[in-house]
Amino acid sequence: MPVDETVNPVEPFLRSDRMPHIWCPGCGIGTTVNCFARALIESKIDLQSLALVSGIGCTGRVAGYVKLDSFHTTHGRAIPFATGLKLANPKLNVVVYSGDGDLAAIGGNHLIHAARRNIDLKVICVNNLIYAMTGGQTAPTTPGHATTSTNPYGTFEPAFNLPHLVEAAGAVYIARWTTFHVRQLARSMSEAFSKKGFSFIEVISPCPTLYQRRNKMGDGLDTMKYYKEKSKTRHGAPTNEVGLTLNGEIVVGKFVDRDRPDYEAMMRGQYVEALGDRYVECGEMVCS
Amino acid sequence: MKADPRGVLTGVHFIDGDHACCEGALAAGARFAAGYPITPSTEVVERFASRVPTVGGTFIQMEDELAASIALQGAVWGGAKAFTVTSGPGFSLMMEHIGYAAMTETPCVFVNVQRGGPSTGLPTLPAQADMMQARWGSHGDYEVIALCPNSPQECFDLTIKAFNLAEEFRVPVMFMMDEVVGHMTEKVVIPAADEIEVVPRKHTHKSTKEYLPYQTNGNPVPEMAHAGEGYNFHVTGLTHDERGYPNMTPQTQDKLVRRLQSKVRAATDRIAMFEEEHLGDAEVAVVSYGITSRVAQRAVDLARQRGVKVGKLRLITAWPFPENKIKEVASRVKALVVPELNLGQMVREVERAAGGQAKTFAVSHAGGGVHDPQEILRVIEEANQCR
Q: Given pLDDT bands bounded at 50, 70 and 90, which one contains residue A2?
């Protein structure tokens, strides 16, 4: 297909009529969406069968900007909504695109249970280490000693190491990149699209307005330099070693890529074993 | 359209209300349920879990009621008819998602087998104390439909009705059972599939280019599309315009929220279902619903035997409140007696609708059992003394 150089290659994947978006200058979420669009191109995934589900927060707004069947759900509940969507129509490829507060705090229970079930969802977690939409409060991912609006003297609660958490819970594909690693991130997304089961991609992303400013970490460009200098690619790194610290090293790479039967395969197997011919495969449940 | 025979267990059964509710859901075309165990409602999904693999559908036990009440909505947008089942504490946890269903116009059914509260309350004993929560439990202005069965047969029949209303109006429908109706075993007749009328999804016939998810074109209920059909639609719980896009202005809010309200309110008389008896010459009317209506029946019969001109009005639809019917009855009697298994919920609506035309008497009960018919009889006689 001839390339029209006057059109940005990601534009067909976006709702241009919704621009400008709400994200701040220097925010990393737009970068991740660009990578997502490139992964869609690269993977040649069927767009009609692709649905995107978000929760609430800055990253939760991604659903409103992509030209796909897209659902902006309630706070923390993107994963269970996506679970229902996927089970009602197993032909769909369902992507959950949300932030760290949404997925790991209010939605933390759903995150671990979806990983345990190995339900076929691709979860993209943009981790800016803070609650951004509401003005910079502590998240379960905020590294110790960082300053937030609700820990003005510095945080002291230990943070979640998300790759370790979802590996323990059962995810089959786990990668982490920063918004500096655009090519690697797009490739991981593309890989996750073709992986059956619960995939989790964490993207460390700047929030210059709140996290970086409050912690005197400079602007968006300074953060890119930090990501470039302090990131270390370690594919297959044991996830218990990839926890994040304030200003410390960021281990990135593909940590987990393993196979186990996904929820639908296990369900089908069990029903066939127990019910034999009496089992009616549900397929697509489109009600007339 | 007629029911899909695969889901219809035609025949005469001796089953409880919970099981009858499950059969009603299957007959109505529900092929997805998400649940979380809670007494006294669990039998509904236990039966669904047993039945649905042989019918062609899915049950998933979620990690909590928050998950169950949103998973079912994901399933609806994936094309299924879906429901969840719960009781008191679980119903409280589902409130945010009742609001989400109202705002996004997701047709679905929430079954609440009511038990005594507040909090953990009386897990194994009945109450009717969630009636106001069913109406007002989520934040913001919205409308729901709520139905109150009083027998296992009605648990079957009205569950089908609940799904049909959900599809017709694109609202969450509250199916307000109670522990006694749920656990009471009676004869339930399930007709042949071709005798069961099922309302199909209001799916759009527009092309992917023309379709706007929340465009109404005169009919206040918009047409739906499902994920995977190429419509590339957007759904949000934020205040949204016809395109489904967030638009947080007072003007868009006003237009949207008023439509969500009026699509149900304007149809109140059409949605209203009730049963009446002896109202022709009645001077006192007993207004009741759910299990209490069966106890009230006994009290009405006893009062009639004693020569009291009493009639009964049973509300099958609790919400939208059948205001005109109450007004009409209140204009003909001197008193309305309202027994319910709570300390006074629907009685306030009855009193408001009566508008002073008739005096209103509550017969409250904190839950944990049903009324003694003698107690209702006493209030009927007291009401009969008023001028």
A: low
Preferred mutation among A18, A85, A98 to probe B, highest tally of B CBs within 10 A: A85
Measure in Å the smallest separation between the Cα of B217 and chain A Cα atoms.
22
Q: What is the pLDDT of residues A234-252, one digit of tens each?
A: 999 999 999 999 999 999 9
Beta-bridged to residue A203, according to DSSP, are A126, A177
B219 is a domain residue: no
Instruction: Write the CATH number for B310.
Output: 3.40.50.920
Token output for B348: 């306030």
Nearest-Cα residue of chain A relative to residue B228: A49
As for the ipTM of the complex, it is 0.97
Of B178, B195, B212, the residue that ends a domain is B195
Residue A72's beta-bridge partner residues? A54, B236
Per DSSP bridges, beta strands B274-277 and A50-54 are unpaired
**pLDDT tens, position by position, B159-210:** 999 999 999 999 999 999 999 999 999 999 999 999 999 999 999 999 999 9
- CB-based contact B236:B40 (threshold 8 Å): no
**Residue B387: pLDDT over 80:** no
Point out the residue among A64, A80, A85 whose CB comes nearest to the CB of B246: A64
CA distances to A17, B343, B373, B378 from B381, rounded to whole Å, are 68, 20, 12, 5
Cβ-proximal residues to A148 (8 Å cutoff; 6+ apart), any chain = A130, A131, A136, A137, A138, A142, A155, A210, A211, A214
- Within 59-78 of B, beta carbons closer than 8 Å to A belong to 60, 62-64, 66-68, 70-78
Q: Which residues of A touch B74 (CB under 8 A)?
A: 53, 71, 80-86, 88
Contacts 24+ apart (CB under 8 A), A41-47: A41/A9, A41/A10, A42/A186, A42/A187, A42/A190, A43/A189, A43/A190, A43/A193, A43/A194, A45/A93, A45/A193, A46/A93, A47/A13
> What would the two tokens of residue A110 be?
């759903």
Compare CB distances from B79 to A48, A271, A285 and report the shortest one's residue. A285
Output the pLDDT for position A287: 46
Same domain, B282 and B191: no
Read off the DSSP letter of residue B357.
Answer: S
Q: Which domain holds residue A121?
A: 11-260
Dist CA A70 CA A95 (whole Å):
10
Q: How far is CA B383 from CA B275, B334, B347, B353, in A?
A: 21, 8, 15, 18
Q: Which of A264, A279, A287 to mutate to test the interface with B (most CBs of B within 10 A)?
A: A287
pTM as predicted = 0.97
Are B75 and B30 within 8 A, CB to CB?
no
Type of residue found at A97:
Y
Structural domain boundaries, residue B25: 5-195
* B9's tokens: 């267990």
Dist CA A91 CA A71 (whole Å): 17
Chain B residues touching A18 at Cβ < 8 A: 245
Interchain contact, B226 vs A89, CB within 8 Å: yes
Question: In sequence order, which ranges of A10-72 are alpha helices (DSSP H)?
Answer: 29-43
Does residue A288 carry a pLDDT above 50?
Answer: no
> B67 with B190, same domain?
yes
Q: What is the number of structural domains in chain B?
A: 2
Residue with tokens 């994963």: A79
> Would you call B217 exposed, middle or buried from its count of C-beta atoms within 10 A (0-12, 13-18, 19+)?
exposed
Q: Which two tokens stand for residue A3?
A: 């390339």
